[in-house]
Design brief:
The chain is globular and about 65 Å long. α3 runs antiparallel to α5 (about 140-165) and α3 (about 95-130) packs antiparallel against α8 (about 230-260). The protein has a 3-stranded mixed sheet with strand order 2-1-3. It starts with 11 loop residues before the first strand and ends with a helix. Helix content is about 75%, strand content about 5%. The chain has helices at about 20-50, 60-85, 95-130, 135, 140-165, 180-190, 195-225, 230-260, 270-290, 295-314; strands at about 10-15, 90-95, 175.
């Protein structure tokens, strides 16, 4: 390609952030700092609760612990930079740091999308084939599926970053965003934006759309199979399914909106980015925990053991 011969002379990018209003930046710092702390504490609590209890032997909770771990990593890629940047007048990020951020976002984001598909399959087997559930969803298969999620996310992010490193950034370096992502950076690259848009749709948008459609199909199949279940069985299955559908919609709909379109930046992109980078990771533990009696009981038991242990050491 012709643009591969060009050299980059951009050593850093300037991020304008969520707003250029100094007063609002202080509010953003306080709000996003609190949200980030809740995200980390909430998701880490889920991971510790599941791994320290018998719930880790259940595929559903094993996958939930993996999802919470990914959420912590995913949120930590961009949010700390946003929080620190809100206190600075000039917000910059080195070129290599920007590329690292892009890689991290798509690595953990891709792994999460695949893991959500795995969780949908787990729900399908549990509801539609309950007698064969323990045989099908054995420990070996669960570990393999989680491994596929990580490998899939890594391959997806690697393709993105190899492509990004070949783009010619030799002009403006100011982007109206608070993080590094594909579309804002494509706008700065000195090359054909139409070709870049096709790449984004093929490697990111289509993957999100395909996963979303697969999850919708699995939900329809599960709902259809519930006709033969008892009233109590339907209630439990619908409760689990509702939590999963909510997380899927929150995770994949913003992804489809951002990546299933030509390479362009819209005024609403910042709000959408805030939602899927910062808000979604904090909602996942709330959705799965407060709608699940077993998780709440396990958290209570974990805290009780901690208090009893502390009392013995006093």
């Amino acid at each position: 390609m012709k643009y591969m011969k060009n050299k980059n002379n951009v050593t850093e990018f300037v991020l304008l952030g969520p707003t250029e209003n100094p007063k609002m930046e202080k509010v953003i710092f306080a709000v996003f700092f609190v949200i980030y702390i809740i995200t980390v504490v909430g998701n880490v609590l889920i991971v510790i609760t599941i791994t320290a209890s018998q719930l880790v032997g259940s595929p559903m909770y094993f996958f939930l612990a993996c999802l919470s771990f990914i959420d912590v990593c995913y949120s930590s890629v961009s949010t700390p930079k946003l929080i620190v940047g809100s206190l600075r007048k000039r917000k910059t990020i080195p070129f290599n740091g920007c590329m690292t951020q892009v890689f991290g976002e798509h690595f953990f984001g891709g792994a999460e999308v695949i893991l959500l598909t795995v969780m949908a399959y787990d729900s399908y087997v549990a509801i539609c084939k309950p007698l064969h559930y323990t045989t099908i969803m054995n420990q070996k298969l669960c570990g393999l599926l989680v491994g596929v999620s990580w490998v899939g996310g890594f391959l997806h992010a690697t393709i993105q970053i190899l492509f990004m490193f070949q783009l010619p950034f030799c002009g403006p370096n100011i982007t109206d965003q608070f993080m590094c992502d594909l579309n804002p950076l494509f706008k700065l690259a000195r090359t054909d934006s139409h070709a870049l848009g096709l790449f984004v749709v093929a490697n990111s948008g289509f993957i999100c759309l395909l996963r979303f459609l697969l999850l919708l199909v699995s939900c329809v199949v599960i709902l259809y199979s519930l006709r033969t279940h008892s009233l109590e069985g339907r209630r439990k299955a619908l409760s689990t399914l509702a939590s999963h559908i909510t997380v899927v919609v929150l995770s994949l709909v913003p992804c489809i909106f951002v990546y299933m379109r030509p390479a362009a930046t819209l005024s609403v992109d910042k709000a959408v980015a805030v939602f899927y980078i910062i808000i979604t990771p904090v909602l996942n533990p709330l959705i799965y925990t407060f709608r699940n009696a077993q998780m709440k009981n396990a958290i209570v038991k974990l805290c009780s053991r901690k208090f009893i242990s502390d009392d013995k050491h006093i």
